[in-house]
């Protein structure tokens, strides 16, 4: 379909380096596809190592003046960027839906969510406090915080707007410059964002965007270049581990938001309707393509059948379709490869004894659509118990006791998000403290916002994004000792 924008200049296909729109040095491009139709949307410039090095050098130069600006002046530019995003929300959402596939109402929600980080860190950047420490009489000990340096960022395709602002906002607010490589599946959202940052008055060089089909060349320069002081990444755990190894040679600061295997634990004293509603949103939002989505539904045996019945009835009301259609509730997955991976997980579970309650196969709509699926008769010996599904598939496991639920929830190398439903106050505390996750939702699955520290433990990553803690990852702590005070 043809994309009609109110402001057609937001649709960019070149790289943005040092304040200029440029082609790749070799003139290479790659095709961005619409996952709902399989149609080509645009040919986008593909950059490599040399362009990445130039962007890093420009960032280093631009930071000299940027970090010296009063925080209030940096804040004003971030506020203008925020206002421009809200002003252009319809176009930004349309671009996202076209290249990523999610329904346009979800895209608008993401744009609002992404913009909230700019607003938040525009304020938090003015609150970077230090300390004066108690010292001996002839000296004073002072602690100050300074920007960490040039930041390299690599972002995913599932949230192509918010995963960028969640990194760029704190970096810029802290006084850093940022060089970004967006996912090859969804570069257009990133390029529209940097266009608006440029219009907001962000100085040249502070924010470069490097679309590329050559991830290893761009990423290799980011991790090896000594000018880069920090790398922030959202994506899979295997790639995150590789990037951490590559950053070790130059001892870069890293923050990683990696894979998840989120349980939703539903106890027999839960509000069943509330639990069904929360599990539906968590599991099927963005067609299951979120790192904190419900990956395993753990339901106590006394309410298991009643939960599955209510859950399935609600899932059967979903409507797959194009993201721009008004009655569409869920769009496609991102690619044919992703659909194949999802179907392999489902078919393997069925071979191991799982029952398909609803769905269980690719949709007749074709391309990248997979039917919303529920699986029962699954247990923790099956491979689906430990796999990150990243699709619209809900395996519903049964447990008997609170202790078993905690053990099942913790039986994974991941530890990003977890959820539980219960009306028992004591159980809320016991389970929340007993499960090994960085974020826990109690009687709620919509837990993410700009004011909370988003991040995981174990192999789900390190560092936190959002909240007052999110600025710390972009700051260094410096101690200054002043002697001879009493002379």
Automatic annotation (TrEMBL):
- Quick check: keyword Ribonucleoprotein in the entry? no
User: Which processes are annotated in GO (biological process)?
Assistant: gamma-aminobutyric acid catabolic process
Stated EC number for the protein is 1.2.1.16
Keywords attached to this Swiss-Prot or TrEMBL record, sorted alphabetically, are: Oxidoreductase
What is a single molecular function from GO for this protein? succinate-semialdehyde dehydrogenase (NAD+) activity
Enzyme class, UniProt record, top EC level: oxidoreductase
The protein's superkingdom reads Bacteria
Q: Which residues form the Aldehyde dehydrogenase domain?
A: 21-480
Q: Which family does it belong to?
A: Belongs to the aldehyde dehydrogenase family.
UniProt-recorded name of the protein? Succinate-semialdehyde dehydrogenase (NADP+)
